[in-house]
Amino acid sequence: MATHKETGAPARLPPPPRKPDPTPAPSKADTILNAARDIFLAHGFSAATTDMIQREAHVSKSTVYAAWPTKEALFAAVIQRECGQFANSLREMDFETDDITRSLTRLARAYLDLVVSPMGLALYRVIVSEAPRFPELGRAFYAAGPEVVASIVGQFLERAAARGQIDVQAVGYTTAAMLFISIVRGEAQLECLTHPNARPSEAQIDRWVEAAVQTFVQAFVKRPEGG
């Protein structure tokens, strides 16, 4: 056993080095994901680097790599979080009313507000531009975004059908839900993507929502007998 030369007492060994945490603390993880989101949306996936992200987040590379070993994994985490936050907010909204048109309008407005927001448009641009080179990122976005929203809308339509408000038997709940979000998103998203320096007014968004909802209502909403 090692001893101090002067006293002969056992030498105090240094404590063993602490093992790094396998994942950063929640608050630090949020900081990293926020930084990653901002860097990816500003520079695109290919041009963004983990060096940029760790500097933006004010953390070490080892902290980033401990949770996300590759840039693709980090971007997938950003996609999951951004899409998941919107899906959760949609689930928490109360759409159950006796007025099916009003319910559909609230659903459409909540979805379109996200789709044409600066963040929503920027994320969509990055995904579409990188999908040919990184198809797994495109699939991750589709599964976490449009598919989840369609599932939430489909569940709403199923409950509305049980109340006798709507009839989508001809196509089924899943297809009807996809049709609904596609009608809502279609013209509005295309116009905003092709006019990047313009921001739609609240009145314009209302018109897009109304046109989409009325189209869907005409196709699927049951009308009173004799109406």
UniProtKB/TrEMBL annotation:
Skewed-composition ranges (Pro residues): 12-25
Chain positions covered by the region annotation Disordered: 1-28
Span of domain HTH tetR-type: 26-86
DNA-binding region of this protein: 49-68
Residues spanning the membrane: none
Gene3D superfamilies tied to this protein: Homeodomain-like, Tetracycline Repressor, domain 2
PROSITE patterns cross-referenced by the UniProt entry: HTH_TETR_2
InterPro entries: Homeodomain-like_sf, HTH-type_TetR-like_transc_reg, HTH_TetR, Tet_transcr_reg_TetR-rel_C_sf, TetR_C_Proteobacteria
Key words, A-Z: DNA-binding
Name of this protein: TetR family transcriptional regulator
Organism: Paraburkholderia tropica
Lineage: Bacteria, Pseudomonadati, Pseudomonadota, Betaproteobacteria, Burkholderiales
